[in-house]
Inverse folding.
């Protein structure tokens, strides 16, 4: 099997989602770091691969693809159709897609709006509406996990990997997951089930350090 090249920025939750998907599939991944803070994504060689200059990006046998949800579903489709990570059953797959869209459009965007201004030093306090947006999103996730082990079906799927990668960024800046019993229990299951989770946590720690460099106190005291 040819090695897949993953252009990766460890603090990025989408990058960590794509990497954990590859680890779950047992794929040989050649990681190439792209430091967004140093604007390495604008280097000419990278722009030839991805004119959108975003990470994660993969190259697989000459095929270039970016956007973590597209990457992860592609990897499962090509290398792990029977893995259960992206179910073949139409209704289960649609439910996974629903949770992937929730991650991309709601959870990730709200946590990003909370944290990124501190990474770039453009904020000194957390607006109440931004904080409430994060809490509301995690409330939705908690409700989605009521009486369930995983977000979709009875096995771990891409829905869990995507959402937990994003949620890690809230926890590392001070969000107390124990306020949401379903989420807290699910988070613990993800830790012990997802291959590469410890590797993910190293990137999470880097993300937390970037935020704390400009705001040492927890964003959720």
């Amino acid at each position: 099997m040819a090695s897949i090249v993953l252009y990766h920025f460890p603090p990025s939750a989408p990058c960590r989602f794509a990497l954990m998907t590859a680890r779950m599939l047992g794929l040989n991944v050649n990681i190439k770091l792209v430091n967004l803070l140093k604007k390495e994504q604008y280097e000419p060689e990278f722009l030839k691969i991805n004119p959108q200059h975003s990470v994660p990006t993969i190259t697989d046998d000459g095929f270039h693809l970016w956007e973590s949800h597209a990457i992860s579903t592609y990897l499962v489709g090509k290398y792990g159709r029977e893995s259960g990570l992206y179910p073949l059953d139409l209704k289960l797959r649609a439910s996974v897609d629903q949770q992937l869209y929730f991650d991309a459009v709601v959870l990730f965007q709200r946590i990003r709006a909370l944290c990124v201004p501190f990474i770039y030093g453009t904020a000194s306090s957390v607006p109440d509406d931004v904080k409430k947006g994060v809490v509301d999103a995690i409330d939705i996730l908690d409700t989605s996990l009521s009486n369930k082990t995983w977000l979709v079906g009875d096995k771990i799927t891409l829905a869990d990997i995507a959402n937990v990668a994003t949620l890690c960024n809230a926890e590392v800046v001070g969000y107390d997951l124990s306020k949401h019993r379903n989420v807290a229990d699910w988070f613990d299951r993800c830790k012990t089930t997802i291959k590469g989770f410890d590797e993910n946590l190293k990137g999470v720690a880097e993300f937390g350090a970037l935020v704390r460099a400009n705001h040492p106190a927890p964003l959720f005291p």
Q: What stands out?
A: The radius of gyration is 17 Å.
